[in-house]
Amino acid sequence: MNQKLIFEISRAGRKGYSLPNCDVPVESIEDMIPNEYLRETELDLPEISEGDMVRHFTALSRCNYGVDTGFYPLGSCTMKYNPKINEDVSRMDGFTGVHPALPDSAVQGCLELLYKMDLMLAEITGMERVSLQPAAGAHGELAGLMIMKAYHENCGNEQRKTIIVPDSAHGTNPASAAMVGYEVIEVKTDSRGNVNLSELRELMSDQVAGMMLTNPSTLGLFEENICEIADIVHDSGGLIYYDGANLNAIMGVTRPGDMGFDIVHLNLHKTFSTPHGGGGPGSGPVGVTKDLVPFLPTPVIQYKEGQYIRDYNRPFSIGQIKSFYGNFAVIIKAYAYIMTMGAKGLHGVSQTAVLNANYLLNKLKKDYQHPYDRACMHEFVLSGQLQKNKGVSTLDMAKRMIDYGFHPPTIYFPMIIKEAMMFEPTETESRETLDAAAEVLIRIAREVEENPELIKEAPHHTSVGRLDEVQAVREPVLRWRP
Amino acid sequence: MSRYIPSTQLEKTMMLQEMNCESVDRLFDDIPLKVCLNRSLRLPEALSEMELRTHMKELAAKNISNEENSCFLGAGAYDHYIPSAIDHIVSRSEFYTAYTPYQPEISQGTLQAIFEYQTLICELTGMDVANASVYDGATAIAEAASMACKITRRNEIIVPRTVHPQYRRTLSTYARFRGYKIVELDYLNGVTDFTSLEGLINKETAALIVQNPNFFGAIEKVKQLAELAKEHGVLVIACADPISVGILKSPGEMGADIVVGEGQALGNPLSYGGPYLGFFATKDKYLRQMPGRIVGQTIDKNHNRGFVLTMQTREQHIRREKAASNICSNQALNALATTVYLTLLGKQGLKDVASLCLQKAHYAYNKLIETNYFSDCFPQPFFKEFVIKSQLPLEELNQALLKDGIIGGYNLENDYPELKKCWLVAVTEKRSKEEIDRLVRKVGGIYESEVNI
Question: Among A154, A365, B43, B238, which has the highest number of CB atoms less than 10 A from its own CB?
């Protein structure tokens, strides 16, 4: 079934809004604004009734798949259930109706929430303070690297211009490093899935600003030599940066600060249950150790003499990185989540997330290649190489999963595993769901043997079939035209 | 156990048995003992759903909200009316609980909505292509500046002081770390000082940024500025108020090469500053240098129309350190709200909203000036926001107004030390004549009580 575009159902003269009549004396527009600035052509926007608009977008929503639709084991994305109460509290008038340019005295509720959230995230990560300013994970990374650079510049170490990133890292790590002018060096992963220590030692020098690391790694494995790595980086004067994409594995078990990390970014839309929104808005707080607090972006929320205030007077700060203060409504939802879970609850989250991942891995490792024979953390990576040898790719199998009603795993990442499939079931899935998903994946492995063409043509039951991405690039159509 | 975790203790035990694992703790054996946290996290006691709601209500009650107060504050975030239908659409969980649309066959809802959004933004800005949105207006400007440096292979950006102060601060942060230079251009009578522009342009100038209407609400001579910039091969980055284009010429018509702006006004609540969305559009020829997600139209194997994320070779997951930007998401749900807003208002509605803002702002301006407690600051045409100079200190004035349920204007001295007692007042379509008259009366009352003391 094909959906028409909103522009194609527009009909001249229809309308979907109602505004009050102008109750002030009407002046001629030309008397207020010189003619040369005024629009001469009509804006070509849709004309449609409210009810038809609702049908259009309801129909579109039904072509989508969300966590509320079904199992969504997208690795490194932590597609856990998004609690409904958190949506409701974030929509309270006393939050949605608050203007960001009001004086601090008029927004004490917002500032109290932000301050307490800062301290709770600091406790969870073992950092001193956390800035809630970054709007997304990548933005948090950018802020973290700016902090690293500002710190080195302040120490007179301008020569430190490289960043070490494992070959398994998220693509955003090197991209963020490049954005602050750092050169990126890759360190290899060893045969157990850890960072190759001897290579790391060789790469370290007084030219290196620091290292970025995800732990557990994107392979779903805990970095066993984390203490040695932190020592190697620190001994040569570098800082070590924690990519918080995988924090869901370790809450209440260990903390980045205890592992020796200096800078941490978190994804509230992963670990702390705020919905992904189809690609945003997210929130990517950045936390730091005591020595780095002066470099945090402005403003920093402080509590002084019974009042919460926004502190802009911070001479060492990297400065402002967006308007106002963070994606506040997203932060509310994550705050509500932590207040709901408490310490015991968050520990239970990580324990269950790790249990669920190992349970699913255990069911699948007979039928799919499992590159590292270790217990996984909250996610695991399989290789579809056995199936690829028989002519069916990981992409084909992912599309076939859709036919069975599941969202596919993350595919072709990390890049160091051929035909990678990265599964992250999360703690909010029941044993039956995991069993059902395992059954489907095992059935697909069987279909590879018996009926590979069926898989190569998948998906068969979606609103559109497999789409031609090459065509989209070759002849870009990026907007509708009449 | 938490209501968000289905597994019971018994089920967990059975799962472990099936895996031949004696306890959950064994699964964490790879974590060195040295780094284990041997205590509980120090967090507040967990709250039930009822207790949480009460707690959140208490926090919300400590804020001043535009629901109970008449808001005349703008300065980059605006109290426009949000039609009810918008929240009903963005509350459909197929939209809000989905991830970035990596699997297009089950993400056509998000993808088509973004394609529609891109089309609407192109129409508003007068550009050829738009991305799926970036974080907000400030980061949109910063990304546009980087893009202009890449296109021109130059590294200076001219920024008038009439651009939003927070945008300029954000731009400075990005510029410091990305290694380009910001050159500030002063204002004259509330608009960019055209006569000083030429002197600042040199062979390293990549772009001129111009905000229209500018931070003071005044309408800039964009066309004239753009023509001068172009004579020197300087790109023009226009930052637009998206409501104003209901009556004003689009930035594209006035010569902009890249058009960005804060999209909050288009159907998104104030929410103490976020989440908002930055819209971002440019000309076809700069498509490959544009940051951010882009959705394109294509066909499926049966030749049916469908939509996919496209032009991904610009992006971090493919290009890593060579990517156009590190951005890997958009403000999808805010962009959806904006798509619904523009769809509902349509051709006539956006014009009507813009006209109401214009009329009411001028009415308020005239009435406030008539009180003789204020003087005019800048003799410029304005849209929905204007600057007047007060005789009373503004903190005092705003505090007194707040007691009467009125959120007063912005104190420009916060960002412009030279603009003492200069009040930036915003009037949207939501303010009734009665509210404006009340503001004028209250201001009069406050001044009179001052005189009596």
Answer: B238
User: Do B206 and B129 fall within a single domain?
Assistant: yes
Whole-angstrom CA distances from B46 to A90, A116, A273, B59 are: 18, 15, 16, 17
CATH number (3.30.565.10, 3.90.1150.10, 3.40.50.2300, 3.40.190.10) of A346-456 reads 3.90.1150.10
B324 with B306, same domain: the answer is yes
Q: What percent of chain A has pLDDT over 70?
A: 100
Tell me which architecture the domain covering A85-340 has in CATH: 3-Layer(aba) Sandwich (3.40)
Number of CB atoms found within 10 A of residue A23's CB: 16
How many domains does chain B fold into?
A: 2
A 324-353 residues inside an 8 A Cβ radius of B = 324-330, 332, 336, 338-349, 351-352
**Residue B453: per-residue pLDDT:** 53
How far is Cα A456 from Cα B271, in angstroms, rounded to an integer? 47
The residue among A294, A257, A445 whose CA lies nearest residue A363 is A445
pLDDT in tens, A154-188: 999 999 999 999 999 998 999 999 999 999 999 99
> Once rounded to an integer, what is the mean pLDDT over residues B419-430?
98
**ipTM of the predicted structure?**
0.98
Q: Report domain extents, chain A.
A: 1-63, 85-340, 346-456
Q: Chain A window 33-92: which residues touch B at a Cβ cutoff of 8 Å?
A: 33-34, 36-40, 42-48, 50, 53-54, 56-58, 60-69, 72, 74, 77, 79-83, 85, 87-89, 91-92
- Judge if B74 and B215 occupy the same domain: no
| DSSP strand pairing (B410-411 vs B385-390) | unpaired
Nearest C-alpha neighbor of B360 from the set B430, B311, B290: B430
Q: What is the pLDDT of residues B256-281, one digit of tens each?
A: 999 999 999 999 999 999 999 999 99
Mean predicted confidence (pLDDT) in B337-349 = 98
Last residue of a domain, one of B302, B323, B341: B341
Residue of A nearest to B71 (CA): A99
Same structural domain for residues B333 and B225? yes
SS (H, E, C) B281-342: EECHHHHHHCCCCCEEEEEECCCCEEEEECCHHHCHHHHHHHCCCCCCCCCHHHHHHHHHHH
What domain range includes position B432?
Answer: 70-80+347-452
Which residues of chain B make contact with A338, given a CB cutoff of 8 A? Answer: 43
Residue B94: inside a domain, yes or no? yes
The overall average pLDDT reported for chain A is: 97
Do B354 and B211 lie in one domain? The reply is no
Per-residue pLDDT for A2 more than 80? no
Report how far Cα B57 is from the mean position of its chain's Cα atoms. Answer: 27
> Does the residue B429 lie in any domain?
yes
Question: Which residues in chain A (223-282) have CB-CB distances under 8 A to chain B?
Answer: 224, 226-227, 250-255, 258-260, 273, 275-282
pLDDT band at A364, cuts 50/70/90? very high
Q: Does the CB of A176 have a partner CB in chain B at under 8 Å?
A: yes
B34 and A CB contact within 8 Å: yes
- Residue A144: burial class (beta carbons within 10 Å; 0-12, 13-18, 19+): buried
pTM above 0.95, yes or no: yes
User: How many CB atoms within 10 Å of residue A198?
Assistant: 8
- Does the pLDDT at position B452 exceed 70? no
Query: Binning pLDDT at 50, 70 and 90, where does residue B313 land?
Result: confident
The pLDDT-based confidence of B449 (bands split at 50, 70, 90) is confident
Task: Tell whether omega for the bond before B269 is within 30 degrees of 0, i.e. cis.
Answer: no
Q: What is the pLDDT of residues A239-255, one digit of tens each?
A: 999 999 999 999 999 99
pLDDT tens by residue, A314-336: 999 999 999 999 999 999 999 99
- Asked if residue B378 and residue B289 are part of one domain, the reply reads no
* Listed residues B288, B308, B341: the one ending a domain: B341
Q: Does residue B351 share a domain with residue B258?
A: no
Is residue B237 in some structural domain? Answer: yes
